[in-house]
Design brief:
The chain has about 60 residues and is an all-alpha fold. It is built from two helices and no strands. The chain has helices at about 1-10, 35-50. The chain is globular and about 35 Å long.
Length: about 60
């Protein structure tokens, strides 16, 4: 799943040139059978929908 998510983010990165996109997945997530093309489309739709693009300042450490 991580490879798929990174692939979508990489493909869409030019659209988010003004935003910092970070992908953080739990390394212990189980594998699940999925349709690569369907999940790709879902992620693309989520990332391309303007209300889903949030501008946040990075947390202070």
């Amino acid at each position: 799943m991580g490879n798929l998510i990174n692939s979508v983010v990489t493909r869409l990165r030019p659209r988010f040139a003004e935003h910092h996109v970070t992908v953080a997945l739990d390394p212990h997530l189980p594998s699940v059978p999925t349709s690569y093309m369907q999940i790709d489309q879902v992620l693309t739709n989520l990332l391309e929908t303007p209300p889903c693009i949030h501008h946040r300042e990075p947390p202070a450490i």
